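Final report, Chapter 2: Outcomes

The project's central promise was a pipeline that accepts a single protein chain and returns its three-dimensional structure in a standardized token representation, suitable for archiving and comparison. That pipeline is now operational. To close this chapter, we reproduce one record exactly as it appears in the project archive, with the input sequence first and the structure output second.
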Amino acid sequence: MSVRIALQLHPQHADYSEIERAVREADSKGVDVIYNWDHFFPLYGDPDGKHFEAWTMLGHWAGITKHAKIGPLVTCNSYRNPELLADMARTVNHMSGGRLVFSIGSGWFEKDYEEYGYEFGTAGNRLNALSEALPRIKKRWSEINPPPIGDMPMMIGGGGEKKTLRMVAEHADIWHYFYNPEKPDVWFHKLDVLNDWCEKIGRDRSEIEVSIGLDVEHIDQADRLAEAGVVEFTFGLNGPEYDLSVLDPWMAWRDSL
């Protein structure tokens, strides 16, 4: 299985023209996947700085990219009705010629909820809502006309051991979690928990790809993580500069495999 290099463009503190430039550059550079995130306000820096909405942006990315897969990392289940979200994803799937990665999580950024009028509730309630939404999304994809085309994998982000990793085992094609090189045992433990859930429910763990978020400077971890089964390495870049040259060592490592 080949390794993928993924870029998460943080859609904050930049004009949209700067985001578009970075997307076009990443696609021409050979980046395998280009993600944004599903928030309404910046996550760091000026809390009221420039920011753009995820799914509208993905519709545009579908038309300006030719090779890279695209997707949200991750879309928040709380912000849209599951059937509507399924339809939105199917539409971008068609617009991109089947290059959408449907990535989803339960949501966590309280300011988004408060400012846009969603009920924040508890982490447990948000996870329960995600568990209810996932089969509804899949059901809508099986009923909608026309259905999704090509390979539209479902990625679930998170590391909760009682609920999230069980949902990964039940529904996901890809699992995404952040890797901290200073605490590697945490990530390897989560992987063991996922393996256990797959065994309990009878899912073949090899059907689930492993994606991680990592800081670009930790290329010394690359071989170890690839040997552990990681197939997608994701790196975040903030605006407005979006200096993609920091990915060059990772692209060279990918190409050397």
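Archive annotation: Residues 4-256 form a domain with the TIM Barrel fold (CATH 3.20.20.30).
This record, like all others produced under the grant, will remain available to the consortium after the project formally closes.
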